[in-house]
Amino acid sequence: MMKPAGDELRPDGGQETSGYPRQEQLIDVRRVDRPDAVVVAVSGAVDVLTAPRLRSALAVALENLDGRPVVVDLVDVRFFGSPGLRALAESTEQAATKPGFEPLRVVVDSNRPVLRPIELTGYDAILALYDDVEEAVSGNPLH
Length: 143
What we know:
It comes from Pseudonocardia adelaidensis. The chain is α/β, with parallel strands linked by helices.
């Protein structure tokens, strides 16, 4: 039996099914350049497939700071796996090499799928956590 040319395999090597979303449907990463901050807003699932997109967006944001903080809005993330944690850790290390270093400002609200892994790994000690974007931009952490 011959497969149509457009068929793709899932990352685990299985056949594509109608219930399995394409990678670009798993995550949405938007960058908003504000005069007072660079905001990277993420929604969806941050896992092994999508963490490279988050890492790339953060790397670009950190390269073009011009004295502004980087705010990572994770409020709309419904799954946050260890690859997402690694992306935040690597971005924090990258930020530390910049003049006028400031830690990443991470907006988590009470989003348990994101906050719990950050707390369990101790990353809450190295990341500045906030309840909303405006608090993160102002730099007054509540956590």
